[in-house]
Amino acid sequence: MYLKSIEVQGFKSFANKIVFDFHNGITGIVGPNGSGKSNVADAVRWVLGEQSAKQLRGAKMEDVIFAGTQNRKPVGFAYVAITLDNSDHALPVEYDEVTVSRRVYRSGESEYKINGHTCRLKDVTEMFYDTGIGKEGYSIIGQGQIDKILSGKPEERRELFDEAAGIVKFKRRKAAAIKKLDNERNNLVRVNDILSELEKQVGPLQVQSEKAKEYLNLKSDLKKYDVNAFLLETDRIRKEIAELDNKIEIADNDLAGSRNEYDATKAEYEEAENQLNELNLTIEQTNQVSSALELDNQKFKGEINLFEEQVKTFNANKQLHSERINDIEKDKTAKTASINELKKQAEAINTEINEYNTKLNAINEEAEAVKAEIDGISGQIENRQTLIYDNLTEQSSIKAENQKFITMLEQLEIRKSQLNSRIITGKSDETAQRQVIASITSQLKECDVNISSINASIAEGNANVTSIKGVIAEKTQELDKLTQNYHRSKSRLESLVNITERYDGYGNSIRKIMELKDSNPGILGVIADIIKVEKQYETAIETALGGTIQNIVTDKENTAKELINYLKVNKLGRATFLPLNAIHSRNTLENDNCINEKGVVGVASNLVRVSFEYEGLAKYLLGRILVVDNIENALVIARKYKYSLRIVTLEGEQLNPGGSMTGGAFKNSSNLLGRRREIEELKTEVSSISKTITETKASISELRSEVGKNRDNLDQLNKQQRETHIKKNTLDVTLKQADNKLKEIIDGYSNAVNEQAGIDAEISKVNSDKQQVSGSLNVLDSENEASRKEIENLNKLLEKKKANEAAVSLKLENLKISHSSVEQKAAFINENIQRLSDEINSLDNEKESINDKIKQTAELIKTKQQEITDVKDNIEKTVKGLEVNNDKLSKLKADKEKVTASHKEFFKKRETLNEQIILLEKESMRLHNQHDKLDESNDSLIDYMWNEYELTYSYALELKSDELTNLNDLRKQINILKASIKKLGDVNVNAIEEYKEVSERYTFLKTQHDDMIEAEQSLMKVITELDNGMRTQFTAKFEEIKVEFDIPDEAKSLGYAPKVKMHLSSEKLNKLGWKAEVDMKEAYLRMMNDMEAEGE
Question: What 3 state SS string does 782-847 have?
Answer without folding.
Answer: HHHHHHHHHHHHHHHHHHHHHHHHHHHHHHHHHHHHHHHHHHHHHHHHHHHHHHHHHHHHHHHHHH
